[in-house]
Amino acid sequence: MQFKSVISAIVLALSITACSSVDKIVYRIDVPQGNYLEAAAVNQLQIGMNAQQVQYLLGTPVLIDPFNSDKWYYVFLQQKAYQTPEQHTLLVNFDKRGVVTSFDLDKPLPDENKPAVNNAIIQAENIAPKSWWQFWK
Predict the structure, then answer these.
(1) Do 40 and 109 meet the contact criterion of CB atoms below 8 Å apart?
(2) Which of 70, 73, 124, 128 could form a disulfide with 63 if both were Cys (CB 3.0 to 4.6 A apart)?
């Protein structure tokens, strides 16, 4: 009788620890946070644009420096499933008139011209029509 309870306790303990030994079973969604920065939009940013044009192009900045309102920070943080998060920061500097004097992107954004890894390209095959008497081919 005591032997059955010991065996059942061992089986229960092994079944509980077996779940924790397998990694990455639970699905995790991609979590983008901040301003979604696209390479095409950042490439359109130019010195000499005013603040309204920058805000139309990139959206409202995540942070405007409270001590110097001439600096806008656009921060984009992307975490895909179990990968380490990747952060991109764009700093836009304005002069006193509100015109862009410089901008700096800390690291390059992913190129949108490259196809995504998880997107499959489906192409239809050219199938010639068959005669009714060649149905076995």
Answers:
(1) no
(2) 73
**Of 43, 47, 64, 35, nearest in space to 102 by CA:** 47
Nearest to 41 by CA among 76, 87, 83, 5: 76
Span 67-112, pLDDT tens digits: 888 999 999 998 888 888 899 999 999 999 999 999 999 988 877 5
Predicted TM-score of the model (pTM): 0.63
C-alpha dihedral sign at 95, 101, 105, 106: negative
Q: Which among 37, 36, 55 is positioned nearest to 100, based on CA atoms?
A: 55
Would you call 52 helix, strand, or coil by DSSP? helix
